[in-house]
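#struct-pred

JT: dropping the chains for the assembly here, can someone run the whole complex?
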Amino acid sequence: MKILIATTNQGKLKEFKRLLKDLDIEVLSLKDMNNTFEVEEDRPTFIENAIKKAKEYGDFYKLPVIAEDAGLEIEALGGFPGVYSARFFALSTFGGEEPVQDNKDRANILKVLRLLENQENRKARFVSNVVFYNPENSTEEEIDKGFGLWSEGYCYGEITTQPYGEEGFGYDPIFKPEGYDKTMAQLTPEEKNKISHRGKAVRKLIKNLSKLLS
Amino acid sequence: MKILIATTNQGKLKEFKRLLKDLDIEVLSLKDMNNTFEVEEDRPTFIENAIKKAKEYGDFYKLPVIAEDAGLEIEALGGFPGVYSARFFALSTFGGEEPVQDNKDRANILKVLRLLENQENRKARFVSNVVFYNPENSTEEEIDKGFGLWSEGYCYGEITTQPYGEEGFGYDPIFKPEGYDKTMAQLTPEEKNKISHRGKAVRKLIKNLSKLLS
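RK: done, full complex below.
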């Protein structure tokens, strides 16, 4: 069976492939489909962004899809960047824009560090919402086609005062998971998957996916 | 198997019982549990409100749960009342408060009719997001417990200029489904379930629920 991973983020794709490697499925990426359009993640919650991506790519490519929306929630920022995590640097209405010099991950990180300067409460969590959607489940009479699996995972920790490590992607260099003396970007991919929000959410999903597909 | 229907809305509960009656499950209501707390539906999307209710009631009662959030989206009102459907009468920030004289459904309806006075575009849709959550799926190591099924259903139609009919609940008396000369409140329960947003969402869910539970 083929499953499309609906992400244009290469870091995420790598982690998904590793998490799904023991399943009897062929993992396809949007690149494999020569995909040329991006589904806008404009909804106010992770789960709805994930469902939106799953349905739009699934209906277009007529393939079962796994899609994710994930982000970083920082307590002292009232949950921000949240669903804006990937484009936080450009969010002028919260904390001002951050210039992108080398890359977007770096600009996002600099904005968070700036907003948390002199802030003692550095508690944060990574959130992942993963959904599975199979367009073939849809029958003609039920044209709106909305059915699937959902799962969520959290990873609690705190924001460091400067970036450390080269692994992972996104905010990993400034996120120190609870019980660790390293940032997420200082862990090996295996170590990260074991404790990460994404790892937890995906493991729950695939545990039940086989039942649904049987 | 027992499944808890996480709603305090008696009209909804009746419809769920009818939709689930052919399944080999014992349907429990919050009333059956002598439930005394209500989960606040304060999230910005239907699906997240549904998941929130499912998890909170499921974890509390240690039972598999079906939960729904549903609402009416009116095109000329930019999608309002949406997630505010049940408490639209009290939403002072959109269209002003509507006094409750006899009941809340009636106040909600009067507010919609007032806002659509002299409005030619009366297009609207009912949206239902249903989720299934089983707390027993959660393992100790994955303490955040988020996994389940999601499904959605839509019913397209338009808003009448006055209420008709006594069946159903909520906005049914002012919602005329596409292809019908009657409002939702003039349909029999069987007719309504066949075309309703809730009927569509629940049928999709239960078609797959048995696989997951086997």
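JT: nice. The longest helix of chain B spans residues 197-213. The longest strand of chain B covers residues 146-159.
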